[in-house]
Structure formats: C-alpha cells, structure tokens
Specification:
By secondary structure, this protein is α+β, with helices and mostly antiparallel strands. The chain contains nine helices and ten strands. It folds into two domains: 97 residues, Phosphorylase Kinase, domain 1, CATH 3.30.200.70; 201 residues, Orthogonal Bundle (Transferase(Phosphotransferase), domain 1), CATH 1.10.510.10.
C-alpha cells in the first residue's frame, strides 16, 4: 500500500512550522486536497497560513519552483493569486522527507459563475494572467499535448488492471476512437500559440472575494493554449454556451488577444480531461485516501458509465466546433 503522507501527522505539520520559525497558536485544519496535503494553520507570527505538502515524485524541485515563481510574478503584477512566502530565502522548503510551500491564507467564498457579471470578471483576470504568461516561457513545467493527457492516460488505465476483461476491450476501443478524433481536431487547428497558463481552472481552484475571483492553486500550471483556461466555463445548451463565451470574452479581450481558431479545441480538451481524470484516479488508487474519497471509482458501474461518456464525447468532438 502506497502511503506517501503516512508520517504527516498533525504533530509533524506543527513541527514543520516550528522548524521554519512559524509560531503557531494551536489551530490546525486539514483542507480538501487529494493530490497533495494542505493544512490551514493559525500563527501568531505570520497570520493564518496555508501549508501545502507536495506529493512525492510528482513534480521536480525545478517544476515546483517555476510554479512558485509564476505565482509571485502574477502577485507582483497585482493579480489575485495565492503566492508563496519566502522563508529563509526560498519558497520551496524541505522538512524530513517532505517538500512544502507556505502561503498566506486568501479569504473568499465559493465562486458563483452564473452570477451577473461573474464571467466577465473571470475573463478580465484570465486575460491579465495570460498577458503576463506570454512574456516568457516555462523551462521545466509540462506541456499540454495529446500524448501526455490522452495516450498516456489511456495506457495508464489499461495498465492499472482495474477493468474486467470485457470492459477492458470496450474501453480500449472507445478510447482509441476518441483519441483519433482529438488528434484530427488538433491537426485541423494547426500550430497553436503556447504560453504559461494556469492549466486547471475548475471551481475548486477559484475563490471569490469582494473584488472578484481569486486563483488559489497553480499546482497544474503548464505551457498550453489559452483556451485551456477558458473552456471549463462553457457548459449547457449551445445558446447557453454562446452567452457564456460572449461574457467571458468581453472581459478577456480587454487585456489580451485570442485566436478564435482555438475554440475548435473546446470539446477535444474536455475529452482529454475525461481521459486524464480516470487515469489520475487509477494511478492513485493505492493511496488509502482515494478509495475513501471516491468509493464509486473502479466498480463495474463506474467503468460502464465512463465508457459511455467517452463514446458520447467522441460524438461531440466529431460533430465539430460550436459556433461561438
């Protein structure tokens, strides 16, 4: 059984604080996170903090430092992101077998994307983030490719041995058909402008304060097309998505440019996320936290539904882009 955080007890978290000169007041709360371990800690010396302990063997030290540097660059440009503190001259800290970052707590509530004007504010913020992201490249962070998020995900699911024999062959066939459709759309779209992006703009990574959206986690920042940070805000009927895009773009285009050809990739990118999410769960299934959090994963019903969802998404990809 893989227990990467087996020794990360509350006492160990408080011990890490003490090791870096953080005077705690006894308040310690585990926050909702599965890939890493994240704790809110009360401090008399630094205010309320969030400590993020990175999962071993996922990112290199250089990749984590690039995440931190990107967050600090955005914060210096007065963008609403959670940026790490420098402690003893560094943002990446080492304590026993763990690597961690220390962040000031950013207050906010759950974002309500359907509130009037919310998408325009998100578009404005992402436009400013992308304007900064285009200024220089990442050196170590991963790149968005069909091979990494698609083919590698398919292979990881099949290698995990979680599907019954009949479902395994059905999954392989549907995944192959979907990947072929995705690759066709990327080929039609042609070479893309690739910049530093957030990479994972889902609801859990965005808070809302009195000024608007606050991006609290850049753990999946990468080199990729701008649309990767935009497509997750588009859902529902075609008319609903057109209205959502109109509002989102009204804010976004005030601060940076956008090549409308990237809209062709909305459904292919949605498909890659579906493939990657299943592979992520399969790859973490020997971590005891995952069966507890996702008890439905790995059942026959789950795989039947997932294969059906992939087949439906293949239809959405081959249907061509929605006219936004």
């Amino acid at each position: 059984m893989n227990r990467p955080f087996a020794h990360l007890t509350p006492d160990a978290v408080l011990d890490a604080c003490q090791a870096f000169g953080i005077e705690t007041d006894g308040r310690l709360f585990a926050l909702n996170s599965y890939e890493n371990r994240v704790y809110q800690v009360g401090s008399t010396s630094h205010g309320t903090l969030v400590l993020k302990f990175y999962r071993p063997n996922r990112w290199s030290d250089a990749q984590i430092r690039e995440e931190h540097d990107f967050a600090l660059e955005l914060a210096a440009a007065e963008l609403p992101v959670a940026a790490p503190l420098r402690i003893e001259g560094d943002t990446l800290l080492f304590h026993h077998e763990y690597r961690l970052g220390v962040f000031p707590k950013r207050a906010g509530r759950i974002a309500e994307f359907d509130a009037p004007g919310a998408l325009a504010l998100i578009g404005r913020t992402l436009g400013r983030i992308h304007a900064r992201g285009a200024l220089q490249p990442f050196a170590s962070r991963p790149r968005l490719t069909v091979a990494r998020l698609g083919h590698a995900s398919r292979d990881a699911v099949l290698a995990a041995g979680l599907l019954e024999t009949d479902l395994e062959s059905r999954y392989a066939d549907v995944a192959d058909e979907l990947l072929a459709a995705i690759e066709t759309e990327f080929e039609i779209t042609g070479p893309l402008s690739m910049i530093r992006i957030h990479g994972d703009c889902h609801v859990g990574n965005i808070l809302w304060d009195e000024h608007g959206p606050v991006f609290v986690d850049l753990d999946d920042c990468m080199t990729g097309p701008r649309v990767q940070d935009l497509w997750m805000f588009l859902s529902g009927t075609p008319d609903e998505r057109r209205a959502q895009w109109a509002e989102l773009a009204s804010g976004y285009l005030a601060f940076t440019s956008f090549d409308s050809v990237e809209l062709r990739l909305v459904e292919p990118l949605r498909a890659l996320r579906m493939l990657h999410h299943a592979a992520w769960l399969a790859g973490r299934w020997d971590d005891p936290a995952f069966p507890r959090a996702f008890p439905w994963f790995g059942t026959r019903r789950y795989w039947e539904d997932h294969i059906g969802d992939l087949a439906a998404q293949c239809d959405a990809v081959t249907a061509g882009p929605l006219d936004l």
